[in-house]
Amino acid sequence: MNHLAHLFLAQPTTPSRVGNLLGDFARGVRTEALPAPVRQGLQNHWAVDAYTDRHPEVMASKALFSSRRRRFAGIALDVLYDHFLIRHWSRFATVDFDAFVTRAYADLEAGEHLMPASMATVVERMIRHDWFDAYRDLEQVGFALDRIAGRIRFANRFEGVIEEIWQHDSELEAHFLAFLPDLIAHVQARSLEQPAEPVPGEPWHWIR
Questions:
Q1: What residue spans define the domains of the chain?
Q2: How far apart are CA 22 and CA 16, in angstroms?
Q3: Are 137 and 6 contacting, i.e. CB atoms less than 8 angstroms apart?
Q4: What share of the chain is helix, strand, coil (3-state, %, to 5)?
Q5: Can you tell me the distance from the alpha carbon of 94 to that of 49, in angstroms, rounded to the nearest whole number?
Q6: By the 8 A CB rule, do 85 and 2 touch?
Q7: Which pTM value belongs to this model?
Q8: Which InterPro entries has this protein been placed in (predicted)?
Q9: Average pLDDT in the 108-130 region?
Q10: In 3D, which of 203, 193, 183 has the Cα closest to residue 81?
Q11: How far apart are CA 201 and CA 165, in angstroms?
């Protein structure tokens, strides 16, 4: 899962949102020194990734990619699933998407002191360029995936993967819609994070 999905699956607090994004930047971080709510968010991130990697719907999605790009199918799905989450936001969320993003960005800015430098740099760029708004557009998802391909440090044929996503859009979407409710139920069942106190004006964002 990618950044938006991890924030969606976090508690609506600064420490949880920081922790749930930290999983992609945790190398070298002394996790035992993190505040408990941040550490719990990090554990939730790891649990989400582990469950996602072995889910049958995700595996079926990866199988749709050609042999030349299947090695990187997981990367493509990470970003694509953020797009599908936005596409079907009202199906899974009780809070307006723009309001959710505004609050999430504010919490990440407030939690910068909790982040390693590499994460703070990416988060600053994410907010400045409003990645989540860009992910509404599948063409923009393609541009993002091509940029990722350009950062891979060895020769690859990942660039242009959006062509295969367009080709299998309806099938990939169907697999996502079958998978996400299972993932939400898994996160709820694991309960790795302490439930957040209600925030005035911000209803809990999952549809339960």
A1: 3-190
A2: 10
A3: no
A4: 70, 0, 30
A5: 24
A6: no
A7: 0.89
A8: ACP_PD
A9: 95
A10: 183
A11: 37
